[in-house]
C-alpha cells in the first residue's frame, strides 16, 4: 500500500486518527520487541506532515541517528513487516540503505545526518538534480561535534538544505550544554506560540507579518544574534510538533525558500503513552513492557555488568576523592545514575562528545585526578585519535570503562562493540582487561584503583547480566594479579586461551573434554610465560574472544606460536538477540565445542589420509 498518497488525501481529522493508529501500532510492537519508543512517539505527526509536503521517494530525507524512524518505515512500505523490527532477520531499528532505498543514509550513531546531507546535495547538484534535501535531527544530536562541524560549512557550500530540529529538550537523559539552554529558551517562547494561537483564525497578511516580527524579536532578545542565522541559515519556528496543520503550513513555507533553513519543532518525547511521557528516559531504549501498566518485563534477581560497574565505582569514589566519572550522554546506560547522585561535583555529563570526553579526561588526569570515562565500545570509536594523541602518547592514567563490548543484540551492526580490542591493542602504553564475569570486573576495578595506575587502562565488558546481588559480589572482591593469566583447568593435548565473556562457556567445554583452559584477563599485556607453557605442552592451541579476529587478541598471540583463532570473522554482524548472535557466531558453548572438535576431526582425517598414501 502506498501510504504517501493515502495520507495526502486525508483531511486533518482523518490524519489525527491515523496518527493515533500509528501510535497504537508502535506501542504494541515495541512492548513485545523492545526499542526506541519515546523518540518515535514524539515524531508521528512530524513524519506525517513531512511526507505530505516532501516525497521521500523523490526527495532526500536524512534522519539523524535513525532511531526515530518507525513512522517513516511504516509509511514507506514496511507496515506489514513492522512486527519484525529489531528481531533477527527482521527490520532494522535504524535507517539502513540495504533495507530500503528511501533510507537514504544509514545511521545508528548520532550526528552524521547534516554531513551526509551536504554531501548528497553536492552530488545532486553535479548530477543536475533538483531533489530537495531535508535533515531531521534531535536537539541532542545537534549538539554533537560532527553536527556542529557540518553546520559550519553550510554557508561555504552554498547549501540550500532544510534542517528540522526535533526539539524535545531531551537527549537520552536531559540534554546538556549551552546549546541545550538555547533550545529550551526557543522552546518556551510561549509569548509567540500563544499570541499565534489566539490570533491565527482572524489573521490578516499584515498581522501575520507582525507576528513574524515579534517572533524574530523574541529569538534575538533571548539569544543575542540568532545562533543559526549567524551560521547563514534562516531560522523559523518554534512550531507545535503535534499540530499537523501548523507543521504542514510551516514545512510548506520553508520548502520553496532558496536558502538554507532551520525549523525548530517542539515535540514531547514519549507523546501519547502516559508512562513514556512521564519517564522518557526509561522509554528511550525500552525493553519489553506491559502496555496496560507500563511496567517493564524483567527477570528478577539479576544484575547487569553496567549496574555492577556503577555501584563499584561509587564505592571506590567514597574512599578516593580523586575518582571522577565522565559520560558522553550515556549516564543511565553506563550505570552511572547512583554515582551522579552521590557525587554531583565529580560527575561530568559532557553530552554527545566522545572525542571531547577522552581529552577532557586526559586534562583532569594531569592534575592527579583519576578519571573514568564510561563509554559504549561502539561510541569510543569516535575518540580513537584522542586516545592515541592525547592519552597514550603522554601515558596519562585514564580509565576507559568500555561497556557494550562484544555483540550488543537488537541494535545491530552500528552498535556492536566488536572492534575495541583491535583498535586499542595496537596503541603503545595501553593496557586492556576483559573480565570473564561480573565478580572479576569488580576485582579488576578494585585492583586498578588500589595500585595507582601509571598509564591508560581499558576494561571491556558486555551488555549482559548475571543472577545475583551486588552486595554478595562486593563481599567477595579480592586483589588480582592483573597481568598474570590463570590456568582454570589443566588438561592435555588441547588448550584454549579465552578472554572476556566467552571464558565461562569455554571453561565448561574444556572441563567436559579434558582440555586446558587459560583465562586471559589481560588482553594486553600478554602473559608470555604462561603462553610459552601453553605452546610447549599442547598439540593444538585455540584462542577465543568476542571481537573481530582481524587485529584482535588471538592474532597478537599468533606471533608466538601456532594458534587457531575463534572470534568474529571479517564481516558485520546483523541484529538479533545476543543469544542468537553468539550462536550464529559459534561463540556460545555449543559453537565453541563444535569449532574445536571440527578442527581436531579435520586434522585427524588429514593425518589418516596421509598415512594411507
Ligand atoms: C556517537 C553516539 N553517541 C551516543 C549515542 C547514544 N544516543 C543515541 S540517541 C541519543 C540521544 C539523542 O537525542 P536526540 O537527538 O535529541 O534524539 P531524541 O531521542 O530526543 O529524539 C544518544 C546519546 C549514539 N547513538 N551515538
Ligand atoms: C540510539 C542509541 O544509540 C541508543 O539509544 C542505544 O540504542 C542504547 O542502547 P542500550 O539499550 O544498550 O543502552
Ligand atoms: Mg531530543
TrEMBL record:
> Which cofactor is essential here?
thiamine diphosphate; Mg(2+)
Q: How does it assemble?
A: Homodimer.
The keyword Transferase is assigned to this record:
yes
Q: Which PROSITE patterns match?
A: TRANSKETOLASE_1 (PS00801)
Q: Where does Mg(2+) bind?
A: 139, 168
**Record field: catalytic activity:** D-glyceraldehyde 3-phosphate + pyruvate + H(+) = 1-deoxy-D-xylulose 5-phosphate + CO2
Q: What is its EC number?
A: 2.2.1.7
Where does the record place the Transketolase-like pyrimidine-binding domain? 303-469
Q: Which SMART domains match?
A: Transket_pyr
Pfam families with a match to the protein in the record: DXP_synthase_N, Transket_pyr, Transketolase_C
| Cofactor binding note from Swiss-Prot or TrEMBL | Binds 1 thiamine pyrophosphate per subunit. Binds 1 Mg(2+) ion per subunit.
Gene Ontology terms, MF aspect: 1-deoxy-D-xylulose-5-phosphate synthase activity; magnesium ion binding; thiamine pyrophosphate binding
Identify the gene encoding this protein. dxs
Keyword Metal-binding in record: yes
* Broad class of enzyme this protein falls into: transferase
Q: Identify the residues that bind thiamine diphosphate.
A: 67, 140-141, 168, 273, 354
The pathway that the record names for this protein is: Metabolic intermediate biosynthesis; 1-deoxy-D-xylulose 5-phosphate biosynthesis; 1-deoxy-D-xylulose 5-phosphate from D-glyceraldehyde 3-phosphate and pyruvate: step 1/1
Single Gene Ontology BP annotation: isopentenyl diphosphate biosynthetic process, methylerythritol 4-phosphate pathway
What are the record keywords, sorted? Isoprene biosynthesis, Magnesium, Metal-binding, Thiamine biosynthesis, Thiamine pyrophosphate, Transferase
Q: Which family does it belong to?
A: Belongs to the transketolase family. DXPS subfamily.
State what protein this is by name.
1-deoxy-D-xylulose-5-phosphate synthase
What this chain does, per the record?
Catalyzes the acyloin condensation reaction between C atoms 2 and 3 of pyruvate and glyceraldehyde 3-phosphate to yield 1-deoxy-D-xylulose-5-phosphate (DXP).
Positions the record marks as coiled coil are: none
Q: Which GO terms describe its cellular component?
A: cytosol
